[in-house]
Amino acid sequence: MRKFIVQITILSILVLVAFALILSRANGYTDPFYIRFTTPKQQNLILGTSRAAQGVQPEVLKNAFNRNFNNYSFTIAHSPFGATYLESIKNKLDHDQKDGIFIITVDPWSISSTTLSPNDSLNFRELELCLSNTPKVDRDPNYTYLLRNLKGKYRELVIRKKAGLYLHNDGWLEISINMDSAIAEKRIAERVEMYRTTNLPYYQFSSLRLEYLQKTIEFLNQHGNVYLVRLPLHPDMMDIDNLLMPDFNEKIEQLAPQTKGYYDMTIFNDEFSYTDGNHLYKESGKIVTNKIAKWIKEI
Amino acid sequence: MLFNSIDFAIFLPIIFILYWFVTSKNLRLQNLLIVIASYTFYGWWDWRFLSLIIFSTIVDFFVGQGLKRHSNETKRKLLLWTSILVNIGFLGVFKYYNFFLDNFVSAFTFFGKGIQANSLNIILPVGISFYTFQTLSYSIDVYRRKMEPTNDFIAFAAFVSFFPQLVAGPIERATNLIPQFRHKRKFDYDKATDGVRQILWGLFKKMVIADNCAEFANEIFNNSAELSGSTLVLGGLFFAFQIYGDFSGYSDIAIGTSRLFGFNLMRNFAFPYFSRDIAEFWRRWHISLSTWFRDYLYIPLGGSRGGTWMKIRNTFIIFIVSGFWHGASWTFIIWGALNAIYFLPLMLTNNNRNNLETVAQGKDLPSIRELVQMLLTFGLTFFAWIFFRADNIGHAFQYISGIFQDPESFINLSIYGQYKTIIVFLFIFICIEWIGRENQYAIEKIGSSWAKPARWIFYFLIALTTLLYSGQQQEFIYFQF
Question: What is the pTM of this model?
Answer without folding.
Answer: 0.86
